[in-house]
């Protein structure tokens, strides 16, 4: 799945993956990361962030937010819809928008370096791993774990359903695959798993017979 696919989705406003409300699992399980709310200087990284309003919730916890997003339309829409007036700077690999404690880097996730994430204290992944086809996920997780500082906690939310019943995105990601992708370099804890097909008529209409959402806490190892 090439970059042009996602850029075209944003151009055509085919963004059914975007949630207009705060993800309920974020507020319910964020405390598991033990990132101190109310203490300045803590930074949360949101990969493939789109224009997620979850970033607003994170900022309201007095956490600074760093996101990376491929589409400039998504970045511009985020600041416009939330009535921010960002400062925009242009760089070789990333354009950067800053406002109100939220910094969004517009460019390719795989161009991120350790320096970009040097101040990150935690990661929130609701929509990045499930947006990637199977052949890309290994490269994504390898790159993420290589550029994160040590001993970082990741709140990861996944979908799981019979992949043969629907072509993604979002793609099905099983617990076994999370363990295969992250198990060698992180400690994994399954916080919760929910059957959510009844609450998702969009998936029912596409013929899905089973839909689960899982919430994981991943902790990167220091060595």
Automatic annotation (TrEMBL):
Keywords: Cytoplasm, Methyltransferase, S-adenosyl-L-methionine, Transferase
Any one GO MF annotation of this record: thiopurine S-methyltransferase activity
GO biological process: methylation; response to metal ion
Cited Pfam families: TPMT
Catalytic activity, EC: 2.1.1.67
Catalytic function, reaction form: S-adenosyl-L-methionine + a thiopurine = S-adenosyl-L-homocysteine + a thiopurine S-methylether
Species in which this protein is naturally found: Nitrosospira multiformis
Gene: tpm
HAMAP family in the record: Thiopur_methtran
Entry GO CC: cytoplasm
Binding positions for S-adenosyl-L-methionine per the UniProt entry: 10, 48, 69, 126
Enzyme class: transferase
Chief location of this protein within or outside the cell: cytoplasm
UniProt similarity note: Belongs to the class I-like SAM-binding methyltransferase superfamily. TPMT family.
Subcellular location: Cytoplasm
Name of the protein: Thiopurine S-methyltransferase
């Amino acid at each position: 799945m090439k970059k042009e696919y996602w850029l075209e989705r944003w151009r055509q406003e085919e963004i059914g993956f975007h949630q207009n409300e705060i993800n309920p699992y974020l507020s319910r399980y964020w405390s598991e990361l033990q990132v101190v709310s109310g203490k300045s200087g803590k930074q949360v990284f949101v990969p493939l962030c789109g224009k997620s309003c979850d970033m607003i919730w994170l900022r309201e916890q007095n956490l600074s937010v760093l996101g990376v997003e491929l589409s400039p339309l998504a970045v511009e829409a985020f600041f416009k819809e939330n009535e921010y007036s960002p400062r925009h700077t242009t760089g070789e690999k990333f354009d950067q928008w800053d406002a109100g404690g939220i910094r969004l880097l517009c460019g390719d996730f795989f161009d991120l370096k350790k320096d970009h994430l040097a101040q990150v204290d935690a990661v929130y992944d609701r929509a990045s791993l499930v947006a990637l086809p199977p052949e890309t996920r290994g490269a994504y997780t390898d790159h993420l774990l290589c550029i994160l500082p040590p001993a970082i906690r990741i709140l990861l939310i996944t979908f799981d359903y019979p992949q043969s019943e629907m072509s993604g995105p979002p793609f099905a990601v099983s617990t076994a695959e999370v363990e295969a992708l992250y198990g060698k370099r992180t400690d994994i804890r399954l916080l919760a798993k929910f059957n959510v097909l009844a609450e998702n008529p969009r998936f029912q209409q596409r013929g899905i017979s089973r839909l689960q959402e899982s919430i994981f806490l991943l902790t990167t190892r220091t060595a």
